[in-house]
Fold these 2 entries.
Entry 1:
Amino acid sequence: MKQKIYLLLLWLCCLNSYAQPPQGIGYQSIARNVSGAVLTGTTIAVKISILNADTSVAYRETHHPMTNANGYYSLTIGSITPPDVGVFASIDWKANNKLLKVEIDPANGTTFPAGLTSTTPFMSVPYAFFAKTALNITAFTIRDNMAALKTNAGTKNNELCYIRGYTWFGDGGEGLFIWKTDPVFKTNNGVGVASGYYHQGNDGTIVQAATNGVPNDTGRWVRLYDDYISVAYFGANGYWGNQTATIQAAIDFAKLVANGSSDYQSHFASTTVFIPSGIYPIDKITLKDGVDIVGESIDRTMIMALPDGTAPCLIDMEAGMVHTNVSNLHLYGKYPGTNGSNKTAMFFKGQVGPYGAGGLTNSTFRNIIVEFFKGHGIHMSAGTTGSLPNDTTIFENVRIFRFYGVTPAIHSLYIDNDNRLYSFINCQFDGGGGGESFYMASTGSNVYIDGNGSSDYALPHSINFLNTTIQNGDYGVYINGADNVNFDTCWFENLGTGVYADGTLRPCKGINITNSRFANVAGYGAFSQYLDANYMISTGYCIESKNSVVNATNNLMVGGDPCTNCGFSKAHPGNLGLNLSMNSFTQDNLAKMTGVMQTATQSGSTLDCKQNNEISATGSGTITTISSTINTGEVVLIKAASSLTFSRAPGSNITFPGSSTTLTLTTGEMAEFMKTDFGGLEKFQLVRIKR
């Protein structure tokens, strides 16, 4: 249970001449039953215990709040008279570290299940900050909200003020502020005097207040907080309304901290923005280098696209190299009254920034759902010349549902140009629409990797999919001019074609598919009965290769009877290499493989086999050189489509036993040659002849 506990810097006993501090601690949370279901509109029992370091009870009371429509409840610790144990005002806070124990009875009784109990320490930074500064505190006041704080500037350095909420009591924006008059918080007050690094107010963590309606520049109200920077500090409440500016303000402040200043560094340390459970409609937010985003839950922290937003995407990033970690978010395009957003959900483009050129790098995205967007789910766009890459990023448990029925040019995942060193772990790229009927698929491709617009050294490459599900679309993965794309232990289901390597404009090489399962792939298999002729139901394969090199090993194909023009694999004419081994099938008619044996024509004295293991060859004259990019120790089977003569004359790279210097195959005969290493010389040794 993520709880917001704000310790009010306690009781300031030495300040009797000033306003009395609040005799209570604001607390709010979401109520759930033992199954995890949210309790809405329900009166519950909440037992609050303040424990000493040895877990003995210093104070205990029981509340009976009612939850709202979202399951939220709020209370003030120390407000019950009489309490169950102890006296709140008599708690010795300085004696030892205190713990907060919260127990819930969903039935509003006296039984508190163990599964609904949590114990957490009080927030350390405000506690420590108070211990360090209490002797210098000059005044203490309480205000209702941020608006009241902004109209009441401090009068003395180290004056404290507690606000009960950002807009209303207990909305997550409550907390303690200290009035600081250090130069770092002041605006330029003279020629040649630089403004302080933190002089700009943001109405969340740094607040410029007024005195009698006139902006006061003698200091700033500075929020005392621990750990993450909550968007609630800036007024984002998770209860609808446009929350673009408030979330962006939190990100921008974290960026300010990330850039660094030696002044006040001990307090402004965190660069992680926290988004509590709730619904946050936005137009667009921009990620910043060095700033992390953490939601409270993948299921309960929803970032929703506003229907009247003008930005082309929901989330993008600042120009230049960006290192970030984003987790626990639900990106949702279906605002009430709409069927989805026209935006792309996430767009990351390599660009020239103020501190250099580049794109997303050394970043992670974890526990994210994307659905109901009519644009791409994720679009990774990089430079075409090698200078603006996105690279070295991990996506884990990211599930993207492509919007059903939109143009085939829209993809769950779209990677173009110089993107490299990605890992997609336990992810899902789905054309089924998200939240719609099970019997749905999308035309086009779920994953599209395109390097055709790149220079030869700026192709997409080194992209890995592990334990990932790709399903419900004409093409699971379409690869255009990219290298080193790997699939290991993946699940391909309900697809026209599983993986298509298209090297029409530029060969795809190093495409590896291993240990994966293909279910109802190749014309959708048994799933085709739920689709019409607009889908790829009359043709398709688990794996297709065109002018490319693809290796498929130890995969399993299952599903209904394939269509006439469907099967496990297809190599198009002129393909560079489709290498298959140890693949399995649940029924014999699934094991259809076409084009594995490619054709080759002798050119001069050379027979070029590319990286194919089976060749049907024609020629005339004598062949002295076999050209092949298979690995040493592998064999190439050459079938004579016409009479072929091989020679081991001086300068030839062909060897065979016996005294004869030539070998002739008549039409229909076959010979196997093994690629060997003879002291650094590449040779093709005759292994056997099949007459």
Entry 2:
Amino acid sequence: MRSLRVRLLLLSVGLLLALPANAVSLENLLERMDAGPEVKAARAEQRALAGERRERSEERGWSLFGGATAGRFQELEPTAGRVAYTGYGAQLGLRYPLLGTLRDRTEALVRASTAEERQKHQRELAETEQRLRLRSTYIDWWEAQQYRRLCRAIEPLASDELSLVRKRARTRDLRTSEQMLLEQRWSRRLDSCQRRAARGAELRYRLESLSGVSLPADARAESALLPLSPAATERWQSALRQHPLMAQQRSVLEGAQRVRRDRWYHDIDADFTLAQQFDWRNDIPGTGTGLVAGLRFEVPLRSLGSYQQNSRSNQRYHAARYELDATHNRLKRNLSDALAQYKQALAETRDQMRQVELSRRVESERQGRAQVDQEGSFMALRLARVQTADAMHDFIRSWRNTWQEETQLRLLAGYAETDTRYLGHQGLPWPGADARGESDPVTLSQSDQAGRQKNWSRAVYVWNSSRLLAPESRQGELNALEEAGFDTLHLGLSARQLANSQGLSQRLRQLLESAHARNLNVTLLLGEPSWLRPDKRHNLRDLIQRLAGLDFDGLHLDLEVEQLGWPVPDERLENWLATVAMAQQASPWPISLVSHHRWFAPDRDGLCIPCRLSAMGVESVSLMIYTTNQASLTERATAIATHWPDMAFRIVQSAEADLESANSWRGTPLKTLRSMERDWRQSMGTSGITGIEWQDWRNYQAIPEEDQP
């Protein structure tokens, strides 16, 4: 009976962990987290620097000046001789800086702009550090709860075990040293368990302070998957480029570049004035006036002979460039160290998991042996049970340490927190304090206790691909696309580009190689309404066959039947389907469509477009639902995805400037859009929506990062 009780107690721990009451996810706390004092201070400083930058900008233009004079004068005149009078004067005019004066004010503006930009990234760093503190506290809170549950399980077990030991010791069937050993082992384990569990209330209070969220009385922390194979250091370059420290230093470099060149006239302070002058004399009635234009300059004599071209500003530029490289190298070293520490911690955790399983097995074998050799196996079974408790205790601590190491990787990853490109595709689930053997890895892209959704794609339409195809601008454009968080590019080609057949193929191969090296998918984006007509359909087939030798990841067709007129008859829909079927037969790549959502509405009468597409094997569709009404967007998208579960849908949103504000997000800051995307992923990801696509790259780039302070 005692053995059965032990097993039930151990099993109950796992059940408690598997069914948490009122679970509070880390992701939910991060999304609802209020700005802390450091973040608020950084925001206030950013607003102050923005005001200073505006002041410096105004100083580069025309300025109003004025003045007044008064005095007793004695002047010599040809006829009157010496004339004494009291005079008064006033002047009001405009001044414009020139040469060195203008250069100095430009430098002041650049310094102010750079300071504002650096402060912006300093604020991002403060936000990242607050998120890190919240993550770390949440993990410690989770650990305290695990120890509290473990204590509840082993305290009655320890009481039973020690009662047996003392009973044996009283009958002298157990040595005193053996009694002391077991009492010391159980005492140490219970003390450690209770000490760590006692931190729960303190950590809960700290978590509420950091997040600004009041937690329910029965709130429970959720465990997370531990990534099994994070990417190697060289694969994290895109994440490092997004780091606020790198962005800070890039702003310094860009500022230095703007004033990099020194010229000989930059040492000459000069300005142009245009003023209206007024004069009064006590000996002459009336007012004298005059419009005066003036040019003033001043230059130190020493600088006339000691000018050195490109000295001061050029050296600042080189210093900023070297500091950018140094910052990148520091982050790279830190990342390499963090990866090594995480991998070591993960190996120790998996080893500790095996140790728990082994301890359980030894305990089971000792229990079985006790039925045969009751006297000889008594001490062995007692030690096996305390060893199992020790292993469970150490396993919780090991998991916590590995999870904390993972937060360092997330800190270095910046905002790419759930990107499987960096953290890998598989993760180790928390098996429960009794380590029931559920140690098989699971796919990170599947939902787990932490609320992760399945893979979520972020694509963008690149209709103007000239910068991507040009060798001199390709890497910079790919950097920008990667930093924006896109994993798929729908690449459009203009008629002029298609006319240069040989050169186009070579540039496309180079682009595809560069994009694939960054784990970016590139689809061929083709769209021309005339291809829907039977007599023009062959033009699409010929174009596909012409580019068939290139390693595109897919063919994305933008064939909008509405562009040939409204209403759309069934005949045109049949032509659309026939064109898609022809393209699928000719295409060496997987095919996907972009279409208005009306053709996939669950309640639509008439020709069943989804049925026909599924029959021909086309199951990937991007739904154009251009609306800034989030409730309407979610309702329409989830209704379609739920009604057609065999198809893979993505939503297309617009940032185009030529659409009405009700249909385009063009004025919404990127920070707000990123938050909304997280909400969309949460609300639509479980219904079958697999990603979002933005129309188009040129307009998306024009969206500001955030509202101007």
